[in-house]
Amino acid sequence: MSTNRHTIEQEELMAYLDGEPPADQATEALSHLELCPECQTLAADFRRVSQGLMAWELESPEVGISSEINAALEERLQKRGAARVSWPKLESRVLASRWVWAGSLAVVCVAVGLILTLTRRNRNEDRSTAYPSMASIEQYLMPDPNTEIAMARSAAPESISSNAKILVLGWRGYETAVEGKNGFVCMVERSWTSPFNSAQFWNPKVRVPVCFNPAAAQTILPLTIDRTEMVLAGLSKAQMIDRIKAGFDNKELPAPAPGAMCYMMSRAGYLNDAVGHYVPHLMFYFPVTDKSFWGADLPDSPVTLNPQFQGGPEPITEFVIPVGKWSDGTVAPTM
Question: pTM for the complete prediction?
Answer without folding.
Answer: 0.66
